[in-house]
Amino acid sequence: MSQKQSQQQRLSPQQIQYIKLLQLPTLALEQRVEEELEMNPVLEEAEPEDQVDQQEELNPGEEWEDKNKEDVDPVDQNEDIDWDEFMHNTEYDGNDYSSSYSGSSGNEDWRDLPDPYHESLLEELEQQVGLLDLDEEEEMIADQILGSLDEDGYFRRETEAVVDNIAFNKGVLISEEDVERVRKQIQQLDPPGIASKDLKDCLIVQLEMMDEGVTGRDTALEMLKKHWKSFEKKHFGKLKKKLDVDDEGLQDAFECIKGLDPKPGGSGNVVDDTKNYIEPDFEVRYEPGETVNGEDAGEGDFIIKLNDRNVPPLRISPRYKKMWDDLKKKKNSNPEAKETKDFIKNKIDSAQWFIDSIRQRQNTLMNTMKTIVALQEDFFKHGEGLKPMILKDIAERVNLDISTISRVVNGKYVQTSFGVFELKYFFSEGIETESGEEVSSTEVKNIVQEIVDNEDKQNPLSDQAIADKLKDKGYKVARRTVSKYREQLNIPVARLRKQIM
């Protein structure tokens, strides 16, 4: 037995809540606020006339205040509540920042209109299957196949698993041949190739459904069915010899295949209709000032807006004020009255912590976005000229931990005059040029992409050749670095980029 005194750093429940809210993107935050409103009866949306402008903002260094202190506890030791403060203590409505960093343009009410309903690809396929001449067993098989499609529209489940599943759940014995027969019928639906086993199967089905008079169709079918490996590796010499065609005939076959869809379910979002939907968390635009000789004199302003239009301002419910006053007047000490007081106190604490966390999240996000814009002014003005920047650069300027900045950046997007960008896009390491100037690795990647786009497709450039071209442009980049950038850009190796003509 021994005693030991030690110090440990632990996060309070309020800090944990703030951290969780901080890393949520706009759409997820909306859902989180709705959940909190449902769970906590004390918390409610503030009416427009009850909103009070909040002029005080937290300093960048104030990552969190200790809300466990007695002097800031919403319900103090004497059980008295400053209801005037809590009833009007709403979160920021997005218009409390200085005019040079926020603002609104035009009527945005139309944005709140619901999107028109569109049938998902899965619903369309179910309707098409209903038009097929299938018996009851085949309908069960079709239902299993459609329910097993992945996000690209492929059926990669083992056929035996479908047989076992129907036998176990439906008590119906079927064969693997039955499953394949139904699957091949589904492949003929729109889009063609849906429910294919693999890419080869998908492309062949689409070619077979193509008009027989299409130039290169027959050659393409023979190539995929009999010489798939040579096709995959683009061994043009071997293909011409095996298929007994010249350059033009092989080119026609490849052009025929180019028009096919390798992901028949990709555009229909079989798995999740909202997966590819992005709601920008910020909007940044530059408003030029006076011009001198037709050029910006540098007196313009950046307008930075935090997207919180679907997050309502929150407050403590005034109805609970009356309930609390009634309980105080009765001064009843029976267990039920005490339990009611404890319930109200806990819910008020929880509601106030949530409001504080939302406000703190907004301040942190805005401070981070302002700093990013300040360090990348050229990009937000002209859409180019990205400078090297790492998380530490932002953390030092806003006096926050690097892990906090990482949570802010992760999964957040900004709408600019040049498109929508993930905040991660603006962070990159620096590469020194021959002149000693430091440029962003993102800019170098853009140059690599440009070099590949303009290369001779019959003789594509190797990684070393790309590195040499970068050196000619003044960028000192090693071959292995080019290989890394090429992989990050999803550019295949030179052999797979080769084309016939």
Main sheet strand line-up = 5-2-7-8
**Regions with little confidence, pLDDT below 50 for 5+ residues:** 51-81, 83-113, 271-275
| Rounded average pLDDT | 78
Form type: flat
Q: What is the CA-CA span between the terminal residues?
A: 82 Å
Oligomer: single chain
Structural class by helix and strand composition = alpha+beta
Query: Helical segment tally?
Result: 21
The tally of beta strands, per DSSP, is 10
Helix amount? 40-55%
Based on CA atoms alone, the radius of gyration comes out at: 31 Å
Major sheet? 4 strands, mixed
Strand portion: 5-15%
Architecture overview:
This protein has 501 residues and is an alpha+beta fold. 46% of the residues lie in helices and 7% in strands. It contains 21 helices and 10 strands. It has helices spanning 13-22, 26-39, 83-87, 121-130, 136-147, 159-170, 176-187, 199-208, 217-226, 228-232, 236-243, 247-258, 319-330, 335-375, 377-382, 391-398, 402-409, 441-453, 463-472, 479-488, 494-497, and strands at residues 43-45, 282-287, 291-292, 295-296, 301-306, 314-316, 413-416, 419-422, 430-432, 438-440. The strands form 4 sheets. The protein has a 4-stranded mixed β-sheet with strand order 5-2-7-8, covered by helices on one side. A two-stranded antiparallel sheet has the order 1-6. A two-stranded antiparallel ribbon has the order 3-4. A hairpin with a 2-residue loop joins strand 7 (413-416) and strand 8. The longest helix is centred in the last third of the chain and has 41 residues, at 335-375. It is flat. Residues 51-81, 83-113 and 271-275 have low confidence and may be disordered.
